[in-house]
Write a structure and sequence with these properties.
This protein has 14 helices and five strands. By secondary structure, the chain is α+β, with helices and mostly antiparallel strands. Helix 6 packs antiparallel against helix 7.
């Protein structure tokens, strides 16, 4: 074999390697994108996050300067706009032309990603766009449709691009269904919590609204302490139910218009244990049980029911303890008048490090200053 032939074969070999490498590179990028989507979906707790993540990833496949997500209402079957991104009035007019209900239904029926050219013939080619319609189907059920608006000509959008968008759409559709189910379950959970909280407040008109205020204060403290979103949510619910054990207390004690006797106080001290037992029976509320059980523990270990000390006490319980004490002080009771906020805060400071966690007290005071409740 002469040298020219060898050089020719070597060039052909190198060219084939370049093609293979390019294919491997694209496959790697596709897998990376898919793995990112799976991670995002696993972490997403809201529909908005899932939809925004889908748009972000879809834009990496096909560069686009606008996008709309249409969702199908589970009850009515109507098609509504779920999310818009970079949609000008001009583009929206184009979308209205392209994506009438029949067009969306047609794309969903086709159940495949389709690139459609701009059908307005009277406009200049430089103004024309391509609409990439990506059906969102989960368990053979239409969930919605993603419409990407791109200046990439229809002919330049490859089958590989459409295939990757299809894979993304299938994962996203499942995520949308999962988040909808999660949000529905959360809604039911919140309704249960509110019903139980209302039952507690109904025991005594003097404490009506107390659980709501403790929940609000506790949430603000948790946010000020920069706790994780899920921790804040748990504290919010625990505040609503921290006194649920009082539904097992006799009315003559709960509604007594004077101070409790020592014997009566011992009975009331049992309400965290009773409350924890009640909530323990509801699997979805298991995370708030330790907060309910320990929201009367003291930072110095002299509280109840288990005399926990310092950081042995769950942080949520330390937060609710401060929120509970503050609202109790600033609220009127049958046997005493309410304290001004300044005096209640002074009491929190005086008992910081003994009854209360100093970090929690400091966080609460910072919140109150920001909300102009207290300026001292």
């Amino acid at each position: 074999m002469d040298s020219d032939e060898e050089v020719k074969q070597l060039k052909e070999y190198i060219k084939n390697l370049e093609v293979i490498n390019e294919g491997l590179r694209q496959s790697f990028e596709e897998l990376t994108t898919l793995y990112r989507l799976v991670d995002i979906i696993a972490e997403a707790r809201t529909l908005e996050r899932v939809l925004n993540s889908l748009l972000d990833l879809a834009a990496e496949v096909i560069p686009c300067h606008g996008a709309m997500l249409f969702l199908i209402d589970d009850t009515t079957g109507e098609i509504d706009v779920g999310l818009k991104r970079n949609i000008s009035r001009k583009i929206e007019n184009k979308i209205n032309l392209q994506n009438k209900k029949k067009v969306i239904e047609w794309a969903l029926k086709k159940n495949r990603t389709i690139a459609l050219p701009d059908i307005k013939e009277e406009i200049d080619d430089s103004e024309k766009v391509t609409f990439v319609l990506v059906p969102l189907i989960a368990h053979d059920k239409p969930v919605g449709l993603l419409d990407l608006i791109t200046e990439t000509p229809e002919g330049d959008i490859t089958s590989r691009d459409l295939s990757l968008l299809t894979i993304l759409s299938k994962q996203a559709a499942l995520a949308i269904e999962n988040v909808k189910l999660y949000e529905s379950m959360k809604k039911d959970e919140v309704n249960i919590i509110k019903a139980l909280s209302t039952t507690v407040d109904a025991k005594d008109h003097y404490t009506s609204g107390h659980s709501q205020k403790v929940s609000e204060y506790g949430t603000h403290i948790a946010e000020e302490m920069m706790l994780q979103e899920r921790e804040i949510e748990i504290i919010k619910y625990a505040g609503l139910l921290h006194d649920i054990g009082k539904i097992g207390m006799p009315d003559e004690i709960i509604k007594k218009p004077s101070k409790l006797s020592e014997e009566e106080f011992l009975i009331v001290r049992n309400h965290p244990v009773i409350g924890a037992k009640i909530i323990k029976e509801i699997d979805s509320l298991a995370a708030i049980v330790p907060i309910i059980l320990h929201h009367h523990e003291r930072f110095d270990g002299k509280g109840y029911p288990d005399k926990l000390k310092g950081e042995e006490i769950p942080v949520g319980a330390r937060i609710i303890h401060v929120a509970d004490a503050f609202d109790t002080m600033v609220s009127a009771r049958a046997y005493r008048d309410m304290l001004p906020a300044e005096l209640a805060i002074s009491e929190l400071r005086k008992n910081s490090g003994t009854q209360f966690d100093p970090a929690v007290v400091d966080a609460f005071i910072r919140h109150l200053r920001k909300s102009a409740v207290f300026n001292g």
